[in-house]
Amino acid sequence: MATTSDFRNGMCIEHNGQLWTITEFQHVKPGKGPAFVRTKLKNVSTGKVLENTFTAGVKVNEARVEHRPHQFLYKDDMGYHFMNSENFEQMNIPENLVESPELMREGQEVDLVYHVDSETPLMVNLPQFIIYEVTYTEPGVKGDTSSTSSLKPATIDTGSEIMVPLFIEQGEKIKVDTKEKSYVERAK
User: Fold this and answer.
1) Tens-place pLDDT, residues 90-122
2) What domains can you pick out in the chain, each with its CATH number?
3) Which pTM does this prediction carry?
């Protein structure tokens, strides 16, 4: 059993008979009334996001999960195929359990999250930051920063499209935040 003071991002809890991961949380102590914790929970099986408020100090069941390193091999009509980096066992994972599949490339190291009690895979997490090569982008025109965002679309080596600043050119390597699917910086 855990309490609301134990909450952290990525923690897996049992709530309403299902498994949820905490994506965001905020402890709130209003001037009047009891303290509470405002959370955003993501359903492990469906991916649905739910906003929920817990009274401070309430007990919740923490699900026992284990993170195991795997390598992405390939995708076919059966799903995504991964190999355990420790014992070389291969397994098939459906697409709904894969976080940001469009950012994954063959040979990519990922983190598979398992429910310890049932030994079932719950989700596939990519590393927070990955370096990609820009395979196509329109050239940025000098002085073309009248818009507030000054971003342009760029296709990366996985075929996915993300928004990058105007100074990024084709062939450059960039660092991408896989959680936000956004440009971070040029890769060194």
Assistant:
1) 999 888 888 888 999 999 999 998 888 888 888
2) 2-62 (2.30.30.30), 65-125 (2.40.50.140), 129-186 (2.40.50.140)
3) 0.73
Helix (H) or strand (E) holding 136: strand 129-137
Strands 18-28 and 36-43: antiparallel
Q: Do residues 172 and 166 lie in contact, with contact meaning Cβ atoms separated by under 8 Å?
A: no
Task: Please name the amino acid found at residue 2.
Answer: A
Classify 37 as helix, strand or coil: strand
DSSP string for 49-102: EEEEEEETT-EEEEP-EEEEEEEEEEEETTEEEEEETTT--EEEE-GGGBSSGG
Considering only CA atoms, which of 100, 111, 123 is closest in space to residue 44? 123
Under a CB-based contact definition with an 8 Å cutoff, are residues 108 and 72 in contact? yes
The 8-class DSSP code of residue 83 comes to E
Query: What pLDDT shows up at residue 143?
Result: 62
